[in-house]
Amino acid sequence: MRAIRCMKASIFSKLAAIVLIFASISSNAKPLVLSSLQPLTLIAQEITGTAANVDTLLPLTASHHDYPLKTSDHTRLKQADVILWVGPELESFLQKPLGNLEANKIITAYALAGIYWPKSHNVGAHKDSHDHAQDPHLWLDPRNAIVVARALTEKLANIDSINSTYYRENFRLFDEKVQKLDEKLKASMKPLAGIGFVVYHEGFGHFVSHYDLKQLDYVTYTPEQKPGARHLHQLRLILANEAKCIFLEPYGDTQSARDLAQEFKLRTAVVDALGSQNVSNYSQLLERMSDAFLTCLTN
């Protein structure tokens, strides 16, 4: 009996040790930040550094308006420690799935205090044709990237207090870097004020407003929509009189915009609001957009 008791005690001790090992591994696991879109991932990576992992929910080529979530996507949402998204104004397909998760692990950028919104720039003949309260592509204003980064920093500092100083130092560096870049871009794009252009879809309001650029119109409101005949007629009048450039995008069918550019002999350039063209950090995303505007609008 004594031998049996000793054997049981030995087995129990080993099991307890295994449980402690797994508990230790679990407690030391890096937090996982799951962002909905690539631009948010670029911002998050500036804060997490090597202390946390960052993943992107949507593939670069997927539509962020109506992406069909797979079973594996639902699993990823449940496993994430922090979920960073813009909000239902942009990723409407995520509203219901996120409603079933813990609210305290979700950061909704659209709802953050301190977000800067574009000055009203009703373009063309569409003043009341769409009812979005604000342009949800908020990361295109660098001040908003700082607001989002600050919210993520505090969230991570709370769930991973051991690395809180590290996260906050990364935020300080990011804040400083983005503000310096912003001043540089303002200076470089100042000569572009007053030069008219058209974008492929209405998603650049934050960039246009912040850098005081002159957007005349858009070809289509969302990439999933084809421009109607009435809109194209109105757009042609604008292109014939004021526009110098049409900005295309690297995703979606932009043939209608290319045809218009050819018809009116306008310049074209590609602007990538999502950072899908080998962009490795947030600053690079803004710099490439600025370069596209400078190239297309400068004589």
Can you walk through the features of this model?
With about 300 residues, the protein is an alpha/beta fold. It folds into two domains: about 30-185, 3-Layer(aba) Sandwich (Rossmann fold); about 190-295, Nitrogenase molybdenum iron protein domain (Rossmann fold, 3-Layer(aba) Sandwich), CATH 3.40.50.1980. About 45% of the residues lie in helices and about 10% in strands. It is built from ten helices and eight strands. The strands form two sheets. It has a four-stranded parallel beta sheet with strand order 2-1-3-4, sandwiched between helices. Strand 3, helix 4 and strand 4 (about 105-110) form a beta-alpha-beta unit. The N and C termini lie far apart (about 95 Å).
What is this entry, summarized?
Helix content is 47%, strand content 12%. The protein is α/β, with parallel strands linked by helices and 299 residues long.
Neighbour order of strands in the largest sheet: 2-1-3-4
> CATH architecture of the largest domain, please?
3-Layer(aba) Sandwich
**β-sheet strand percentage:** 5-15%
Structural class: alpha/beta
Which terms summarize this structure?
globular; 10 helices; alpha/beta; Rossmann fold; four-stranded parallel beta sheet; single chain; 299 residues
Write the SSE topology.
Blueprint (H helix, E strand, L loop, with lengths): L1 H27 L3 E4 L2 H11 L4 E4 L14 H9 L2 E4 L9 H5 L6 E3 L33 H18 L4 H26 L6 E6 L3 H6 L3 E7 L8 H13 L3 E4 L6 H9 L3 E4 L11 H16 L2
Parallel strand pairs: 1-2, 1-3, 3-4, 5-6, 5-7, 7-8
Helix pairs in contact: 2-5, 5-6, 6-10
